[in-house]
Amino acid sequence: MISYPTSKLPDIGSSIFSVMTGLANASQAINLSQGFPDFDCPEQLVQLAAKYMHEGFNQYAPMAGMPQLRHQISLKTGKLYGYQPDPETEITVTSGATEALHAAITAVVKPGDEVVVLEPCYDSYVPVIRLCGGVPVFVSLALPDFSVDWDQVKKRLSSRTRLIIINTPHNPTGAILTRQDMDILANLINSTDILVLSDEVYEHMVFDEQEHYSVLQHPGLRERSFVVSSFGKTYHTTGWKIGYAVAPAPLTAELRKMHQFITFSTATPLQLAIADFMDEEAHYLELPAFYQAKRDYFIAQLQASRFEFIPSAGTYFQLARYSNITAEHDLEFARRLTTETGVAAIPVSAFYHDKTDNKYLRFCFAKSEETLKAAGERLAKV
User: At what angle do helices 67-81 and 268-277 cross, to 10 degrees?
Assistant: First the structure.
């Protein structure tokens, strides 16, 4: 009888996103759990993808990404952030932002290296750190606004710290980092060799006339950082799985070594379609207003409920606290909300390594008004 090897990630099962979406489907619930729109991407983008497929662009793309797309990313980055990375040596197109995150972490984290992780955090960071033999060092964001306590970060730094992972706008909380936050971080690591991985996939979803401040705007951080973004979020094409990483040439070279053995390249016609569509600057420039309207509509529906909330500053997620409703653990309440009320959300404890339960659920408002209204009516009855 075969003896199978022990798991490298023995405590990791199906992601909470798969679990809650599966439960939502089984219960015929409104799915505000997994972060994807229930509306389509721009028709012009679909037509461009079909055009390139019909024209025969169906073979491998260059490992680093189609030159046309890397050129467009460089131009856009320069316009938005005042820094134009070299498309040949500083930009890599990846099969989704999650792949870019994986490639960046595996490129620089070696056994015994420490990686500072701000919790709650996106669930792919820690498993990759552990697969590299790295040691995640956790710092909790401060309630109720989920701000960074930089004094706590400073206390957790050591001679073994290799990387700090930040995420702005932040999934799951919707919090954003400011220029002041970036200055503090830069000062903390200025005299060290610590690197930064900045997850900025929701860069175009910042609300209330605030602005996204990118690591790429900060010279002291830019020279030591990977910055990851996502076309799936920007163009409502999460199923296309196209993201990219910007980093200094030496870091990009190491990231590409990982990327070439993870996926090697990303779908050619989709890259070309996006490269053409990036000329439509109005789409991403108008995205903050587009999603703020959805946020405002959703929280208007929540006003009639017993949930408590602070309007999200960014992303397409809204946290809601339910301690006035029940003392249940958030996972149990999320399950019951799905099966009994017919609305699926993500329990925020899933974003903590020790399943810390602060009685919050995460709702995705990247949905049609019809969907959000129906969800609000159900939530108001809880």
Answer: 40
How many residues does the structure list for the chain?
A: 382
Q: Is 172 exposed, middle or buried (0-12, 13-18, 19+ CB in 10 A)?
A: buried
Contacts of 36 (CB under 8 A, 6+ apart): 238, 239, 364, 366
pTM above 0.90, yes or no: yes
CA–CA distance from 333 to each of 14, 136, 171, 290, 361 (Å)?
19, 29, 20, 31, 9
Residues 6+ apart with CB under 8 A from 359: 321, 322, 323, 330
pLDDT at 231 over 90: yes
Element (H, E) at 91: strand 91-94
Q: Which residue type does 243 have?
A: G
Give the chain's mean pLDDT: 96
Q: What is the DSSP letter of 308?
A: B
In this prediction, residue 124 has a pLDDT band, given cuts at 50, 70 and 90, of very high
Name all domains of the chain by residue range, CATH numbers in brackets.
16-41+285-379 (3.90.1150.10), 57-280 (3.40.640.10)
In the structure, how many helices (H) and strands (E) does the chain have?
15, 12
